Amino acid sequence: MIFDAARTAALELLSPPFRAVFIKTLGLTVLALVALWFGLTSLVEWLALPWLQTLLPGMPSWAGWLGGIVAAIALAFGMALLIAPVTAVIAGLFLDDIAEVVERTDYPGDPPGRAMPVLRSLVLSMRFLGVVILGNIVALLLLLVPGVNIAAFFIVNGYLLGREFFEFAAMRFRGEEEARALRRHYAGTVFFSGLLIAAFLAVPLLNLVTPLFAAAMMVHLHKAISVRERRR
């Protein structure tokens, strides 16, 4: 059930409707990163450089150039780290688009899910951003513990990402409490699905499509679980 959902979602990433959403996500991400770059550059020029000149009044001119180069490298490194979180926030606004494509294409005979209001989508995307940041902070701390290492990244992110995206897919058809109860009932299945999402998140470039892949995968998984529940 898990691997069928993952395989189908991965293949659908190449379809035209998915590409359209990805292009919109990537375009908005680039615009957001450019805005952040200019904002951070202006902040450094406004605060950091005057502070250094005050701290080191006799600083030679070449030191200012060197400081500028170091600041540019630090900013570039920071922007590289921000690519995945910024993409996560923007992609969160298009999760319903992905879910609707999957439901319309693969489950045409089923009633369509309810799209979330824009504000709720924004809240979900911010929660996903928080999950990514918190999960990676915890994982980085656990990396210092002997014997845990990289497994910490997958365990923490697998749990958090599986929970968030499964509840998103379930809440298109169920109330919030019912969606959470279903997720708890299938906690193991949801967790192992989250591990696959975490694997996507760990690969450069693939992490740009992680929210889209996760949304499609969890729609398929929720459909499979719903069929199992009806049979019970």
TrEMBL record:
Q: Where in the cell is it found?
A: Membrane
Highest rank taxon of the organism: Bacteria
In what way does this protein cross or attach to the membrane? Multi-pass membrane protein
Major place of residence? membrane
Q: Which UniProt keywords apply?
A: Membrane, Transmembrane, Transmembrane helix
Q: Where are the transmembrane segments?
A: 21-42, 62-95
Task: List the protein's name.
Answer: Uncharacterized protein involved in cysteine biosynthesis
The root-end lineage is:
Bacteria, Pseudomonadati, Pseudomonadota, Alphaproteobacteria, Hyphomicrobiales
